[in-house]
Every structure is written in structure tokens, then in C-alpha cells.
Amino acid sequence: MLTLFARRPVHIGMICMTFLFVVPAWPQEPESGNIWSDDEQKSESIQITKDQVEAILGQLKTSQPKRAEELEKLRKEDPIKFALEIRQIAQRQMQEQARQKETAEPKRPGSTTRTERVEDTTRTDRWRDYLVDRLEEYMSWLEKNFPQQAAELNALSQSDPEEFVNKVAVSRRRYEPIMRAQQRSPKLAEALKADAELQDRRDMLLEKIATAKEQERAPLIEELTEIVGNRFDIIIQKRLIKFEELELKIEQMRQSLEMEKRQLQELVNQKPQSTRERVAELVKAVEDAKQQKP
Fold first, then answer.
1. R_g (Cα) of the chain, nearest Å
2. Residue 185, φ and ψ in degrees, nearest 5
3. Of 80, 63, 244, whose CA–CA distance to 161 is shortest?
4. Which residues of 6-41 are buried (b: 16+ CB within 10 A; e: fewer)?
5. What letter does residue 44 receive in the DSSP assignment?
6. Which end of the chain is more exposed for a tag (fewer CB within 10 A), N or C?
7. Cα angle vertex 121, ends 125, 70, to 5°?
């Protein structure tokens, strides 16, 4: 929030720039009034296949044999840590490829990308521990809020740790916004949670409809219609909550700006007295310095 001005000239542009910086982005309406645009715009989480894992290890065996050996050892000792780290390497490679494509900058012979450079062991270990901590925090939260999904993931962590990390990434796309919202807006978090539960029910119904016989489809579609209608209401509720929160922030900023405006006017009114006091301070400083000279 804006700070108090302490007897120094203030350019009005500074206030305007501060306001522009602090005001949150206004929620955008869906294109053509499509309330389901959130579903359509969700990007798929990156999935790391077994072939990609082996390809990455193969590349590292050539460019960084010690690093490859460390990862092979980690794969045996702690498969989940291994999967988390491989995922990070794959993501960095994709980012590097996207950057080179955007800039049309071909890789020079003999050069190395960021993912191929030798990394500091301490930093790598610290980053790996950070990823594990985040994973544990998320799984703990999921067990409390979506126990069925957590149980499925925990079972997968034992049978296929690498696929477990893939599925966690997908899970976090859907549920982590709820986790974050619980800390800043419990009301919004409840709406997000209700929406996620409806989406889960919708997806299960769609799987049933895809394999159902013709005579079984009607009741399933009727249930799906009810779920989609409930989702419509929840989506409207989420947007209303966001608008209410935005209105509150704007009102708080308006009050803060009014207070700043009053304080600026008070400073202006104090100009004669402040000027006299400052002149007296300057003159006194000169006289004191003159007296101290031999």
C-alpha cells in the first residue's frame, strides 16, 4: 500500500504509477459469453514417458557421465526423487528448445544447453529436497480434502513412482488452486472445491456413457445434465466472489488514496512553518561550523 510522504516533494505521476501497479487485473469475460471457456483453456500437464526418461539418461551418459551415474543410483534408492528430478530436466529441455525456436538461434556445435551444464551438487540436492517437501505438502493436503484421489496416487507411488509423479502433476493442475485459495479466500476455496468435485463426477459419468449400451445412456445423460447445470451455478458463484474481492480491494485503495491526499494537503498547509524551521536549521548549522573553526 502507499506509504506516508515525509516532508519531501512528491510528483503526482508517482502516485498514478503506484496506483496502476497495485490495482489487480480486472477479470476477463469469456469469449463470446462462453461460460465453459475455463475448461477449454486449461493446458495439459506435461507427461514424461518412459522413452523420454531413457532418452534423457542416454544424453547425460554422453554429456555428463557422472550426472547420469548419480541419477541411475537415485533411481534405485529413491525412485520418487529420481522422477521429480527427471521431470525438472525434461521441462528445462523443453523451455530451451522453445527459446531456440522463438529466437531462431541454432545450437552451435560443441556448445551446451543449460540442462547439459554441470550443476552444483549442493544446489541440486537443495532443489531436490524442495521438490520433495512441496510434494509431501500437497499430498498431505489432498488426503484431507480429496482422500479418494490421494489414495489412488499413494498406491501408484508404490507400483510406478515415475508415473506417480506424472499423475501428481495432473492432479495439481486441478486441485492446487483450491489449496492456495484456502489461505487467502476460504469462500472462494469452497466454491473451487465444489467445482472440482463436480468435474470429477462429470468425468466418471462421461467414461460410463462412452461404454454404456443404448438403453443405459438416458439416465446417465440426465445425471450429467444435472451436474453440468450445477457447475454452471458454481462458475457464476466463483466469478461473483472474485468481483466482490476486487471491489473490496478497490475500496481499500480508494480510502488509502484519500488519506494520502489529505496528508499531502496538510503538508502544503505547513509550508510556511516548515520553511522557517528549515531555514533556521540551515543557518544554525552554518553558525555552529563557524564557531568551531580556530
1. 29
2. -155, 85
3. 80
4. eeeeeeeeebeebeeeeeeeeeeeeeeeeeeeeeee
5. P
6. C
7. 85
**Helices 79-103/50-63 angle, 10° precision:** 80
Measured CA to CA, the distance from residue 155 to residue 158 in angstroms comes to 6
Q: Using one digit for the tens of pLDDT, what is the confidence trace for 240-290? A: 999 999 999 999 999 999 999 999 999 999 999 999 999 999 999 998 888
CB 219 within 8 A of CB 227: no
Query: Taking CA 129 as the corner, what is the angle to CA 123 and CA 134, rounded to the nearest 5 degrees?
Result: 125
Cell of 197: 468435485
Burial call 178-214: b when 16+ CB within 10 Å, e when fewer: bbebbeebeebbbbbbbbbebebbbeebeeeeeeeee
Residues 162 and 48: their CA atoms lie apart, in Å, by 8
CA angle 129, 135, 133 (to 5 degrees): 35
Helix axes 12-22, 214-269, angle to 10 degrees: 160
Which grid coordinates are listed for 100? 531456440
22/256 Cα distance (integer angstroms): 12
Task: Write the pLDDT tens digit of every residue in 19-43.
Answer: 333 444 444 444 446 788 766 445 4
Which cell numbers hold the place of 214? 443404448
- The count of other CB atoms within 10 Å of the CB of residue 238 is 20
- Planar angle of CA 27, 31, 34, nearest 5 degrees: 100
Contacts 24+ apart (CB under 8 A), 92-101: 93/56, 94/46
Kindly tell me the number of DSSP H helices and DSSP E strands found in the chain.
11, 0
